[in-house]
Amino acid sequence: MEKGISKPSILVVADDFTGANDAGVSLAQVGHTVDVAFETPYRGDASVWVINSDSRAMDPKQAAMKMTSLMRHLPMANNPPLMIKKIDSTLRGNIGAEIEALMRACGLTGAVVAPAFPQAGRTTVDGECRVNGVRLTETEFASDPKTPVMSARITDIIRLQTAITCQPVTVSQLSHLSCEQPWIGVMDAQTDNDLDRIAAAVMQAKQPLLLVGSAGICNAVARRSAIMPPRTVLAIIGSMSEIAQQQIATLHSHPRTTKIYVDVEHILAGDASGYGVRIAQALQKGDHCIVHTCTDSVARHHIDTLCQRWQMSRTALGEKICQFLGELTRQVLLHATPDALYLSGGDVAMATASALGASGFRIRRNVAQCVPYGHFLGGVWSRPVMTKAGGFGDETTLRQVLNFIEEKMSE
To answer: Which residues form the Four-carbon acid sugar kinase N-terminal domain (predicted)?
Structure first.
């Protein structure tokens, strides 16, 4: 690339190529131009540079020298970029040596270490790295053939390769840590919200800090530095099947999902005017909005009670709910514009199509198991639509749908 050297707003240093890509992809998805460089000096005009040091399997001294050499050729003076040291979420590699070398090369006195990646089952609890709830030393990563891990305690791993003071810290303690003596702080995180708070604290700190973490912390930085608005899905789930409820439940760790329960009693009583406003507000703030009419499997057994109380058949009850959800969707779309609709339950999908004035459906492809993707023909909604029979798919189906809209639809 022959363009002159620019200064990126975010500079990431990763210790292997796949890790570099994992670090950069979430930043690219929110509008940044992201380049992964294999060597320095590097000439480019991307807003994010990810430098692959390829140093994970080196000995600590070599890895530190590689960090120093890389930084010598990068533009750091005068308004330096946000510095991120991308590490493996299971602590493999030369973490302590590389943190110290980068701190010295960049003139930074503080480093915040948050290796958690909750979406991949990696969390940090009481200073220990856990994989799906199991201590790291009790997993296969402890016996990695190239870079085995000897402890689950993050401070112990870092102290093996640096004499810089390393201790557990909290977000509230960051502003009180010394600017005179170098320090490394390790932070617990079990959810994406925890990582969001850590990223925010580092990005807003008075003095520049080195942010150290896995793809999880890079995702948190992406959420706080988005150039374009995040893609959103309005999911209307009328199915009461157990698998549909499991699909909703798996979204508990998703960082930007709002679930809105529509009480069938309100629908039948004609007292449901507030739902549309809440749904539109969720979409407008950039959340996926999951609208559902069933709280758990127990609710399925209350249908007969509802029918008796309102003196209507099961068929009539179902039609009433579906018509309400279809009209609710139409009203919401007058005030908010999600990037796609997800309609779970055949009757709900048909009622929504009717409310939107559609005359047919053109199928494009499958998004996930049993989830066709396409567009309505005619009517007032021309953006993507995904449909799913209520009892189909597995517990990951809805998450796959959200991932498709967030990641692949922009390709």
So the answer is: 10-220
